[in-house]
Structure formats: C-alpha cells, structure tokens
Batch of 2 targets.
Target 1
Amino acid sequence: MDSKTITTSIILSLILLCNPSIAQQQQQPVTPPLAPALFVIGDSSVDSGTNNFLGTFARADRLPYGRDFDTHQPTGRFSNGRIPVDFLALRLGLPFVPSYLGQTGNVEDMIHGVNYASAGAGIIALSGSELGQHISLTQQIQQFTDTYQQFILSMGEDAATTFISNSIFYISIGINDYIHYYLLNVSNVNNVYLPWHFNQLLAFSLRREIKNLYNLNVRKMVVMGLAPIGCAPRYMWEYGTENGDCVEPINDMSIEFNFLMRYVVEKLAEELPDANIIFCDVYEGSMDILNNHDRYGFNVTSEACCGFGKYKGWFMCLSPEMACSNASNYIWWDQFHPTDTVNGILAANIWNGEHTKMCYPMHLQDMVIQKAK
Ligand SMILES: *[C@@H]1O[C@H](CO)[C@@H](O)[C@H](O)[C@H]1NC(C)=O
Ligand SMILES: *[C@@H]1O[C@H](CO)[C@@H](O)[C@H](O)[C@H]1NC(C)=O
Ligand SMILES: *[C@@H]1O[C@H](CO)[C@@H](O)[C@H](O)[C@H]1NC(C)=O
C-alpha cells in the first residue's frame, strides 16, 4: 500500500489549515550541524505527526497532547512536550525533523531529515492493526527508499550517498509487537511461540531491516531497546498491582528482547564494513529514573498525568480536563508514554550518558564527533 499517494490530497488541505508557523517558532539550532540530517523510524515513542494523516485510534492531535511543546500545540507527538528525537535534533544542531506524511514532498523540506515513525506500528506488520491504520516498519523503510530516490534526482547519486551515509538513523520499534500482538495472543501466537522464540523472531526481523538500511548506504544507526512497559499505568491498572508495583512478567519480555538485540547489534556492527550502530537500552535508563525518582525531581511515579481510572491507566487521554495541571513532577504522561521531562533525560543519556550509561558500545556524541570507524 502506498499510503503517501492515498493521503496526498488530505495532507495538502491539512497543511493549509495547520500551523504554518511551526518552523519559525521552534528553537533555532546554534552550532553548525554535527550531522547533515536525522531520519527516524519507529512507533509512538517517536511519531511526530504521521498518524494525524491515518484512520486510527492511536493519535495525539488534540490537546492536552503538545500543551508543553515549543508551540504549545498538539502535533501528533505522544507527549505533553518533546519526544527524544526532538532533543537529539537540537544536540546535532538540526531543526525538529518533519513527519514524512506532513511535508510537501519538496527536497528542501527533507534536507534535515524525515520522521517516518507511526504510532501502533511494530516490527511485525500485523501488530497494532486493531487500532486502525499504521505505517509498519517495512513500509517506513519503503518510504525512506522513495525519499532517497528524490535526493538522488535532486543532488545526484554521489552526493545523495554521502549525505545518507553521514546522516543519523534513529530506530525505536518493537514494544507494540508485545502490547498489540503477543500479549493479545493474536493468531494464537502464544501457542506458536514461547516468549523466548517470539523474541528471536523480532530481533532477527529487525536485524534484517537494519541490513536493508545498510544496503541503502545508511552507516550511522541508533537502535533503541524496549522500555519497561510493565511499569506503564496501563498495565499496572490491567493487572491490578498495588502500591505502583510494576508487572514483572511484562518487564521480563523487554529485558529479554534488549539482551538479545544488544548482542545482535554488536555482531552486526562487526560484520558490516564502515557501519556504526549503537544499541541504547532504554529499559536501564528508565529504571534508573523510576528507582531514583527523587534525585530527578519526580514525585508522581506510577500515576499518569492524563487518563482515567486507577493509575490513570484504564482509559486513554482524550481531553484537557483529564490531565493534571502540571506534568513536570510526573514520570508518565498518559497510560503508555512518558512526559517531556523523562524524554529529555533519556535523550541526554543517548547523547552522552549524562545521567546514566545506556548506550553500547558508545554514545551518539562519540559516534558523530570521532569518526568511529
Ligand atoms: C491463545 O489463543 C488460543 C486460541 O486462539 C488458545 O488456545 C490459547 O490458550 C491462548 N493462549 C493464552 C496464553 O491465552
Ligand atoms: C509533588 O511536588 C509538588 C511540588 O513540589 C507538589 O505540589 C505536589 O503536591 C507533590 N505531589 C505529590 C503526590 O506528592
Ligand atoms: C510546573 O512546576 C514547575 C516546578 O515544580 C515549574 O517550574 C513550572 O513553571 C510549572 N509549569 C507550569 C506550566 O505551571
């Protein structure tokens, strides 16, 4: 399915209606860029507006989403403010990266990078289907292939190849394969795969897609692990935990995936000439925040700012009235997603391990500054 074609007319009319001023309002990068562009592939952890153009329940295009963002407007980001790739774009000296479906298709709009991430998407194409439309991992890479063709037409093959191989690719996907596939026992998957085998299926599928990107001349990648989703208000509500205890069997799935994926990335980086691939264990970084919340200034650790029911985990965040007045002391923004403050801490860890080490074998800053390979 070519969703770009399908949605083009919708996009054109929406672009006219929506915030033409976002580009001017956002914080201007100060330094000369450390990389030519940032490309983002993933799910709701990094969706910056893709799902605004799709028929899906997984959307963040209404307040209170975005209320603490630079523009104080909803953009499609699943947060009260910024998502990790916003913080990283600024670290790289780049502007915020536009969503693929939200830009006009001009090369100038994509010259600092493109965000293909779609909420609900998983490594398996079917994951998240019960929410409605999404752009799966394979489709996102197909969209990148189209972007690459446009760069080649515009700047020539050599320049486009240099541009892509110096750009940063940020990949954050996999949790929906648990949330919206394995844990729902879709297609009797629980009987077909034990958790450990399902893990392997995911890790090796992601490995194949990373190699596809490599074959498209991508050379600098950040592969994110899975978050402790067993600590998300949604699952603490669903499993009826007391005193904000996390759901350990769910967290164990993230731990096992991260263990395997870190190894897969390490091997792949050795195997592929000139490849710089780092793995960032967002589970480690998130648990450091949860366990040391006082040090970070959080005093609401298990209840979401916006939602309904115990831990605000029962129902999704739908209106400003459902939200707390000030999210800055909260770890969780809604039933699945962290606050802007948490995203900033995680991004700082990815950049240089500022609060705790979570990236292997090096930080993103090391990758862009030293010519690692
Ligand atoms: C998954 O679904 C199948 C039938 O579709 C059922 O036999 C099996 O018990 C389910 N597994 C779990 C763990 O619920
Ligand atoms: C958290 O701290 C803020 C300000 O420091 C305070 O207003 C709020 O009542 C505290 N919340 C809880 C649940 O302790
Ligand atoms: C939220 O509270 C923090 C301190 O606890 C404060 O610095 C910030 O200005 C508040 N934000 C809003 C929007 O009131």
Note: The chain has one domain: 3-13+31-369.
Target 2
Amino acid sequence: MTGTPSAPGSGALSLCGVCTENRCCIGPLDIFLDDEDRTRLGITTETISIEGEGPCRFLGERGCVFGSRKPFMCSIYPVAPMLPLEPLRLGSHETCPCAGEELGEQATAARRAIQQKLRTADGRKLVRKIAEYYDGELTPLK
Ligand code: SF4
Ligand code: SF4
C-alpha cells in the first residue's frame, strides 16, 4: 500500500494539484476496482467507497498514498469514458476545476489507457461502471 506520493488529489497527470481541496478524493465517492487494481493494491473489495463528505482513507498529506499505482479510475481522472462506449468518447468530470478545458496529453494518455482496458472482459466491465457512474456529469472533451 505504499508508493511514491503524488501531487495532491487523484488526477493522473500534470493537472493534479490545480485545486488545493483535492476535490477528487473527497466523498461521497465510489472508486470501482478491477482485478488488476485489486492485485496491484492488495485490496479485496470491488469498490473503495467514501461515504459522507470525508476524505478517502488513502489520501495522505502529500496526496494519494498509492502514488502512480493508484486505482485506474483515479489515474485517468478528471477524464472519464462517456456512454455509449462505442465509439469511445471522453468527458471531464464537473467536480474538477479543469472540466471543460482542453486536457491535451492527459486526454491522450487516458484514451490510450481506456482502450487498453477495453481489451479484456474485466477491464471492459470497469470502464462501463465508470461511464455509468459519471453519466450526466461529464463535459465532452473536444
Ligand atoms: S485512492 Fe487515492 S487517488 Fe483515489 S480517491 Fe483515494 S486518495 Fe484519491
Ligand atoms: S479535482 Fe482535479 S485539479 Fe483537483 S486535485 Fe483532483 S484532478 Fe487535480
């Protein structure tokens, strides 16, 4: 459960830390996990759930304690897949102050990571769960 602490919050790439409140790690929130996440992180549950408005139990003083090993869903945030999954379209989540901005390399990396997940049944299930979870809360990326 250790790793190099990342910048505050969950966002995968350069934008994380833009907001100082770590909004992406504050509940209420569900982080869905696939087998790959569970094996990597040593977590046995399907979901990391944050009930109420408190912080995720994995949010340390210097950001996510998992660092770059954080759950897939967190690693692509604020980017998320939109429904329907085909053709793949991406949006940014409204909770993040970067929503609606052009996310450039972050969006490209997230797209690549999502496409990789879509190659397996388990990964596909995870991508669908994420898309359903954020449905209606995403601003389409240009
Ligand atoms: S697992 Fe890490 S990145 Fe994800 S919500 Fe919790 S602290 Fe944030
Ligand atoms: S909400 Fe957005 S800007 Fe704030 S820490 Fe998370 S990814 Fe970074």
Note: Strands lie at 29-32, 47-50, 59-60, 63-64, 79-81, 90-93, 138-140.
